[in-house]
Amino acid sequence: MRSHDIRERYLRFFEERGHHRLPSSSLIPRDDPSLLFTVAGMVPLKPFIAGRRTPPAPNLTSCQKCFRGAGLKYDDIASVGDAYHHTFFEMLGNWSIGQYFKERAIEYAWELSTDVFGLDPTRIWPSVYPDDEESERIWTERIGVPRERIARMEDNWWAAGPTGPCGYDSELYWDFGLPCSCGRSDCTPADECGGDRWCEYWNLVFMEFDQQEDGSRPRLPKPTVDTGMGLERMTSVLQGVRNDYENDLFVPLVASFRERARADTSAPERLRSIRVLADHLRGACFLVADGVIPSNEGRGYVLRRLVRRAAVHARAVSLEGGMTESVPVLVEEMAPVYPELREHQGLIEHSLREEEAMFRRTLDAAMSRLDSMLAGGTTNVSGIDAFRLYDTFGLPVELTVEMAAERGAVVDLAGFRSAMDQQRAQSRAAVERTGFGAAAVPATRFVGYEEQEADASVLAVEGGASLHEGDSGGVVLDVSPFYAEAGGQVGDTGRLSWAGGEADVLDTQQIPGSDSRVHRVRVTRGDLIAGTRVNAEVDRARRAQLARHHSATHLLNRALREVLGESILQRGSLVAPDHTTFDFSFSRALTPDELAEIEHRVNEGIRRNLERSVEVMPLAAARASGAIALIDEQYAEDVRVIDFGGWSRELCGGTHVQRSGDIGAALIVSESSIGQGVRRIDMVAGEAAEQRWHAWSDALHTTARALRAKPEEVPERVAALQEQLRRAAREADQARRRAATGGGVSGASVEEVGGLRLASVMLDAESDGDGAVAAADLLYAERLQGDGVAVALAPTTLAVKVGGRAIDAGIDAGALVRAASEVTGARGGGRREFARGGIKDAAKRGDALDVIRASLSRVGTAS
Is 838 helix (H, G, I), strand (E, B) or coil? Predict the structure, then answer.
């Protein structure tokens, strides 16, 4: 039975029994700041279970996307690669809120398992909590399971936390049979003996108590059934495989990675790397599809850690093309159920490819630095060194811990955290101050709403009494038409002129804690002295573009609320002359249709040519009138309200157009995630929109002419070219490797030492380190077919590659290189499968090869 059939049969089974089918929610929990991700099927139902919202029906069923790997309570990332642990998985579930309870839940589980899925009832073992006599009685008397086939386990107790809903749970285990067992004939699921005989495939949770702080547990007014069946595990059970990576959810991905791995993937550690790649690609793709973008914090950091961990495993199997090349395989398999994968395939591939490429450039250097840190036999990586790997190379400390463990070393995590804290403290201390004391400068009267030019006096000059020709600095005026940066709108620029002099105004900023504003100027002629009378003039064209973008932002805010709902909250904005960005709370990426509708409504508001009105009123009255305010902004008692024709109404101190038609047009450039539950729209308006449109159109037509195609044919032609380039790149890489070794490794020899095959070659004086690495790769692939030890010795570099039975025999490339390089007076090291080192005395290359032969001979003698 295929996984798609299992998923559908489960959901249809419960639909036919009065359950309302819910679609899967996003991996980003909505209205739940306690969780980074949806970690269980019941997460989206928490408001229903807690009584905060009314469910669409009392009985529910769903197949929920889940992700565990955030380093919190649920973190399966370190276990990925074994039989059953995954970062991304699908959880089938059924719930009953105050309707049915234990008896019917158990009956449903048994009926679905045996009648619908056809499982042998003699191979299903339920488990119960030792005190849960009711569940045990249902299993034995209603279902007919022999009492001796019921495991009593202390773990069968579920609680959401130290207080709150809790209760017994009952799990269903599948018996894979004695051949998988630990060897004991009386083994049961309760023994935890370490064998792989038992697979827990369904958990039935019965929430019936309310844990109190005093230890008492009164019964809940509405007991709730909450069940979870992992689709991956159930698929393995029904397809008769004992490892999830062998069922049809994973087989296409695993095959895709194995086909592109240049290393032999039959060895246990390399097979585990292939499985990690398959798992991490699934997790990464679904995260990006739900709006997570790699970053250094929150959800974005979890995604970044996932991709970088995958990159390490890709390196371990010498994967061609990187993880991203297998995205189409996943999309083909999963998009029929989760169409967001196909909708966002371009974003997924772009995000992952960029992250992979960025990290790949530094991974080799990071691993080389780690090997240097561990040179001389030390088994500890200091906190400072771990921080340097993170700060310099972007290596997450979790990866440093894993790679250090592979080399028999540990990382000082407490020292790492201390170094991180110290860096943050230094960053805070480095924040620049304005240069003016708030109490030392009189207030500036702002006239910029009405005028863009004014006569003024210079009240103060930053750092002294004057600025001379060529100097830059800050000046404070008594009257100013220049808008100071605030509310997301950047400060005005323009000119100051006076008798005998001129200065460019480069920026305008408010002095913190005062009503004064500082004008950042560069004197182009004459001297500017405190007390001078000047003419202050704003750059009118730039101010007009700022006004267009600011007013367009207000229309965007209104359109977002109409399309996505009134719960949208503005989280920030940037209004610049060439574009505007708008940050808002939302739990997922917007669809293309949603973006198109939002853009349409903004431009519809522009075409309506709505009149702008301005009112100053008390804050309470403004809120009562429906004006939108930033949730975390501190406002004065009286506020300024900008209204466009009654359609858009906001608290705002910025500059705006007279009528919405003055904006001209607006164009959404991009939409992305910038943090936990926060999205960003980048938009251009007015002349900037026209320029961007012409740029896009010119680029499209130029590309079409170059391809000798119509504009609408460009995507298809580009895809064909990309495939040609990939093919040419692979051929070029093969040619480069041969060229680096002088055309091949024809002078190589292959011998058997200690029962293992050893291929070696002495390279000529023209060969360098890259040539040695390329030669070792060729020897490994062409002479050894991935089974043995390949050694290439250039005049200054030694490269060793190990695989197949040599790995199984305990041969370590890093150890071989360290010993061989030392004979020549140099140093080296690396990983178990590949290492490189220096050769200080080329005349001793033969001695270095003898050291390697001796090491192989000792292993053969020992075995």
Answer: strand
Find where tokens 């359609």 sit: 647
Which segments of 139-267 does DSSP mark as H helices, in order? 231-239, 251-260
**795/733 Cα distance (integer angstroms):** 23
Same domain, yes or no: 28 and 99: yes
**Selected residue with higher pLDDT from 185 and 117:** 117
**Contact indicator for 673, 679 with CB cutoff of 8 Å:** yes
Q: Which domain holds residue 760?
A: 741-862
| pLDDT for res 451 | 92
How confident is the model over 240-260, as pLDDT tens digits? 998 999 999 999 999 999 999
Beta-carbon contacts of 144 under 8 Å, excluding residues fewer than 6 positions away, are: none
Q: Please give the C-alpha separations between residue 232 and each of 271, 278, 416, 655, 814, in angstroms, as whole numbers.
A: 19, 13, 37, 56, 38
Q: Is residue 411 predicted with pLDDT exceeding 80?
A: yes
Bridge partners, 671 (sequence order): 681
Q: Mean pLDDT lowest for which of 429-443, 458-472, 621-635? A: 429-443
Nearest to 633 by CA among 653, 663, 661: 653
CATH number, position 804: 3.10.310.40
Residue 198 lies in a domain: yes
Average pLDDT score over the chain: 88
What DSSP element (H or E) covers 307?
helix 298-316
What is the number of domains present in the chain?
Answer: 6
Shared domain for 466 and 499, answered yes or no, is yes
How many angstroms separate the Cα of 55 from the Cα of each of 21, 50, 60, 559, 611? 12, 11, 9, 29, 43
pLDDT at 75: 47
Q: Are residues 629 and 686 in the same domain?
A: yes
Give the residue from 660, 656, 636 showing the smallest Cα distance to 646. 660
Distance from C-alpha of 670 to C-alpha of 667, rounded to nearest angstrom: 9
Q: What is the mean pLDDT of residues 456-481?
A: 89
Query: To which H or E segment does residue 607 belong?
Result: helix 592-607
Distance between CA atoms of 71 and 169, rounded to whole angstroms? 26
Contact 17, 108 (CB under 8 A): yes
Q: If you write DSSP's letter for every residue of 695-713 in order, what string do you get?
A: HHHHHHHHHHHHHTS-GGG
Give residue 744's pLDDT band: very low, low, confident or very high (50, 70, 90).
low
Instruction: Check if the beta carbon of residue 792 is closer than 8 Å to that of residue 779.
Output: yes
d(C-alpha 225, C-alpha 509), whole Å: 59
The reply to whether 72 and 211 lie within a common domain is: yes
Q: Tell me phi and psi for residue 85, to 5 degrees.
A: -90, 140
pTM more than 0.90: no
Which pLDDT does position 430 carry in this prediction?
Answer: 33
Q: Are 837 and 813 in contact (CB under 8 A)?
A: no
Number of alpha carbons in the 13 Å side-chain half-sphere of residue 490: 17
pLDDT digits (tens, 9 = 90+) for 763-788: 887 777 888 888 898 899 888 998 99
